[in-house]
């Protein structure tokens, strides 16, 4: 297997997530349950619309504010939304920087504008997390999300990648299966295993 390119997911792979923190915070702030937890990730039509850029941050926050209990501020909602983004250890940053000297590395992430603003500042020693990568493909910017085939096609076509030379790294089985259908090599990151361990001999 000859790998020239690596496409990384963010949450659960590069950035530690605790979705329950956001779910719990919303349970305290909102009258109605706006989202469900499915396979460890939040799911809702409002979130999906936001992740593919169908609505902007103002509309997303206004939708949540419409469900908020009296006295809830917009700052409370933003903080609750970002509460799931925990940390990005220096070890992972070092691993990514090392890989970037040998491979073309990319991000493909289902995310949104508020989270992008937050996690771009999480990488120790970096002005922006995405500066480590050749390109970052965020679902709200490319108007589609994994596991849709179109998300993978956009990365491959815009960056001129061949599937036989490309490894896709993700923590969700559905996304791994979708990547396999696109003929990509895959690495399914399991809970509790550092990507630094997976790539220590690369």
Explain how this protein is built:
The chain is of the alpha/beta class and 202 residues long. The chain has 2 domains: 5-16 and 86-198, Rossmann fold, CATH 3.40.50.1000; 19-82. Helices cover 41% and strands 17% of the residues. Strands 7-6-1-8-9 form a 5-stranded parallel β-sheet, sandwiched between helices.
Outline, from the CA principal axes? globular
Instruction: Give me the side-by-side strand order of the main sheet.
Output: 7-6-1-8-9
Overall number of structural domains: 2
Query: Low-confidence spans: pLDDT under 50, at least 5 residues?
Result: none
CATH uppermost class of the largest domain: Alpha Beta
Strand content: 15-25%
The CATH superfamily of the largest domain is known as HAD superfamily/HAD-like
Distance between the termini: 13 Å
CATH topology of the largest domain: Rossmann fold
Order of helices and strands: EEHEEHHHEHEHEHHEHEH
Radius of gyration: 17 Å
Reported for the largest beta sheet, the result is: 5 strands, parallel
Structural class: alpha/beta
């Amino acid at each position: 297997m000859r790998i020239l390119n690596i496409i990384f997911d963010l949450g659960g792979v590069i950035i530690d997530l605790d979705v329950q923190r956001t779910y719990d915070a919303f349970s305290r702030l909102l009258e109605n349950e706006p989202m469900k937890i499915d396979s460890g990730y939040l799911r809702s039509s409002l979130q999906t619309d936001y992740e593919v850029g169908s609505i902007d941050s103002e509309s997303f926050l206004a939708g949540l504010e419409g469900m908020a209990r009296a006295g809830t501020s917009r700052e409370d909602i933003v903080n609750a939304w970002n509460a799931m983004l925990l940390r990005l250890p220096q070890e992972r940053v070092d691993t990514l920087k090392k890989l970037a000297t040998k491979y073309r590395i990319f991000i493909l992430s289902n995310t949104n504008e508020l989270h992008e603003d937050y996690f771009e500042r999480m990488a120790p020693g970096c002005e922006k997390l995405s500066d480590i990568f050749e390109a970052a493909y965020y679902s709200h910017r490319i108007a589609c999300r994994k596991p849709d085939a179109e998300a993978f096609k956009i990365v491959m076509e815009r960056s001129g990648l061949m599937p036989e030379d490309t490894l896709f790294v993700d923590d969700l089985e559905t996304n791994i299966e979708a990547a396999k259908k696109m003929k990509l090599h895959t690495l399914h990151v399991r809970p509790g295993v550092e990507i630094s361990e997976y790539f220590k001999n690369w």
